[in-house]
Design a protein that fits this description.
alpha+beta, Rossmann fold, Jelly Rolls, 3 domains, 13-stranded mixed sheet, nine-stranded antiparallel sheet, 11 helices
């Protein structure tokens, strides 16, 4: 079959029923009005003109050549679209998406069938829109997404406050403060820009107002009612990303409607993600769309329910370009058989169940509050120091149990579970558990981790303080993993009361008394499976080449000031200045973020994230500088933010979100 010619419609205005005009970029197969085609729709706040243009240009031309229109639309208040964004996955956003699907299906070039696709934001909202059942939506592909907005996103995790919440609020404040392109909107650009700057929200304020898993988080969490999703869903994620749980949760909840694909990847599309090996995403997606948008009998519905890459002992390294491992498939996903471990009297992790009614063997654990600097980012964009590093440093502040060197390889796929009885002399404390692969040279690769705010031990909707000093059984489900522990390696369980800066500290630092005799670790066995070879992308370098005017730079470092007894975790990201060769638009973003803490004082914690965003072409230059901050007292979270905007060298706008004190709710 020869590729179908296509045309790129650089900007198509679509007017919603409320009068808001949204901006779309469309890849249109030729002669579509005479020979109508299906369409794939992606709806994001990340700016089609510059923000997502490289990845859009790596995929939608391939779809169009296969006779599938690509429709990439900016959410209101983003890129060249009118209005101001009102939050994440709001009722307005999802209603707009349903309206846009109907608009696409009604076009004379459309065959009436629409698919929805995306990664991260777009992966979230395509599942949420599917649950609303717009008639023309026939299938989705969701990458790096969630079924549970409270426990599997950047905000909270089992009641623990993730630092990514500030990082992402800062990112969105920066993204939404950018101007539309005058080349597309004309003289309206400045008025549109000022409207955004004046009215854009600081998302952190709303997120911190909901510290429990309440109706705010249940909205958009398809796990509340999986039956609402009736269309087929291909759900994809990477082990190196924070959204690694979603594919397995999706097949468990959606059953035959879902197919799961999990690779070794960071937070990127599989055809250009790292670490390698990659996957032929274009081939996978086109087959999926042809089956469900064209009724082509290609057998896509008969794919194995789960396909996963099993990591085979990757070494922690400053950069991981390729991870060792192998692909497996399971025709049907079933609850794994668990291999159980317990702690012997001398602290060794041994196979078997804890001895019932064994006398307590209490060990006191109080980690330095800067334990966790090898945790990496919660969600990762590059396979470098954003990934979890060598775990030996964090293990020094942890309580560890490990097996003897393994006689044979152990293969796992699924979510580990920890059960333990512990006591605490405060209302609230955090527990972190990590599964670590200890290589023969002593280095440690993090395989899985989980965190728990102990006040949330019985659920996230109605937290209960700990009864001081009372031995309390808790259960912690860790993140999903697909991993082989080779013979000669050790399986280590590491427990800590801090995991900073990924997890912000509890208001006090009481430590925990751990009954090691009660401790049980259950690891999910891989079980019966088939081996297969994942097809690799035909193009090993699918992203377009832009014009570089200034190089990018990445720095990530930990600074321990021994005199001041303070630890700083510092992030500096500079994308460099690059120009789109077709539009002439050059952009650059800088992120300068620092987290600080005194290792013995949880109330010393601070975070500050400063973003500088530049846009320019000859004769036109705009810049925004946004600053977001968080600190705390024992009873309150303290947040503030500001945005300044410049046209040329002249400051044309400034807005200050004054410091707001938000009561800590069991956090």
């Amino acid at each position: 079959m020869t590729d179908r010619p296509f045309t790129v419609i650089e900007n198509q205005w679509i007017t919603l029923a409320d009068g808001t005009r949204l901006a779309a970029r469309i890849w249109m197969p030729d002669n579509a009005e005479a020979d109508p085609v299906p369409a794939v729709f992606e709806f994001l706040p990340y700016r089609k003109r510059d923000g997502t243009s490289p990845r859009d240009e790596s995929t939608y031309p391939v779809f169009a050549a296969a006779g599938i229109a690509g429709v990439r639309i900016d959410i209101r208040g983003s890129g060249e679209s009118d209005g101001v964004i009102d939050g994440e996955y709001t009722e307005l956003e999802l209603a707009n998406a349903c309206e846009l699907i109907a608009w696409i299906a009604a076009q004379p070039w459309s065959n009436g069938s629409v698919g929805m696709m995306g990664i991260s934001w777009g992966g979230f909202n395509c599942l949420q829109v599917a649950a609303l059942r717009p008639p023309a939506l026939k299938a989705v592909i969701s990458i790096a997404s969630t079924t549970d907005r409270y426990n599997d996103d950047i905000h909270y995790k089992n009641g623990c406050h993730l630092s990514a919440q500030l990082s992402w609020a800062a990112t969105m404040l920066a993204y939404q403060s950018r101007a539309p392109d005058p080349e597309l909107v004309g003289d309206r650009w400045k008025a549109m820009w000022m409207e955004r700057l004046e009215n854009e929200p600081f998302f952190m304020k709303e997120w911190l107002a909901h510290q429990r898993r309440d109706a705010f988080w249940k909205h958009g969490s398809i796990g509340e009612d999986f039956s609402a999703v009736e269309v087929p869903a291909l759900v994809i994620a990477g082990w190196a990303d924070g959204y690694r749980n979603t594919p397995l949760l999706a097949v468990e909840g959606l059953g035959d409607k879902a197919k799961a694909l999990i690779g070794p990847w960071v937070h990127k599309y599989p055809h250009f993600a790292w670490p390698k090996p990659r996957a032929d995403f274009h081939g996978e997606a086109i087959a999926w769309w042809n089956r469900w948008l064209r009724a082509e009998p290609n057998g896509a519905e008969n794919m194995p329910q789960v396909r996963a890459f099993i990591l085979d002992g990757p070494k922690p390294a400053p950069r991981r370009d390729v991870d060792p491992g192998f692909w497996i498939s399971k025709d049907r996903w079933q609850e794994p058989v668990m291999q159980c471990f317990y702690v012997e009297g001398f602290g060794t992790l041994a196979e078997g169940m804890p001895i019932p009614h064994a006398p307590a063997h209490d060990v006191y654990l109080k980690s330095p509050l800067d334990t966790g600097t090898a945790s990496g980012e919660w969600f990762t964009l590059k396979p470098d120091s954003e990934l979890a590093g060598d775990q030996r440093g964090d293990d020094a502040g942890s309580l560890i149990f490990q097996t003897a060197p393994l006689n044979v390889a152990h293969d796992f796929l699924g979510r580990p579970e920890l059960t333990v009885t512990l006591a605490c002399d405060a209302d609230i404390a955090n527990l972190c558990a990590r599964i670590v692969d200890i290589h023969p040279d002593g280095s440690g690769t993090r395989v899985s981790f989980g965190v728990l705010n102990l006040a949330h031990r019985d659920g996230n909707e109605a937290p209960q303080v700990m009864e001081h000093g009372k031995p309390t059984p808790v259960r912690l489900v860790l993140d999903a993993c697909g991993y082989r522990f080779e013979a000669g390696h050790r399986i280590r369980l590491s427990l800590s009361t801090a995991y900073w800066p990924m997890v912000l500290p509890a208001p006090t630092d009481p430590g925990l008394t751990i009954d090691t005799a009660s401790l049980g670790l259950a690891m999910p066995l891989l079980g019966a499976h088939d081996a297969f070879e994942m097809k690799q992308p035909a193009n090993p370098d699918p992203l377009p080449t832009y014009i570089d005017h200034a190089p990018g730079k990445t720095e990530r470092k930990v600074v321990r000031d021994l005199s001041a007894n303070r630890t700083d975790y510092c992030i500096y990201e500079d994308t460099g200045l690059s120009e789109h060769p077709d539009t002439g638009l050059s952009t650059r973003q800088l992120r300068d973020e620092t987290w600080s803490i005194a290792p013995g004082d949880p109330l010393s914690m601070t975070g500050i994230s400063v973003w500088t965003c530049d846009m320019q072409r000859p004769g036109w230059f705009v810049r925004t500088v946004s600053t977001s901050r968080i600190a705390c007292t024992q009873t309150e979270w303290l947040i503030s933010a500001s945005v300044a905007a410049y046209e040329g060298e002249t400051q044309v706008f400034e807005k200050i979100f004054p410091q707001k004190a938000i009561p800590r709710d069991f956090m």
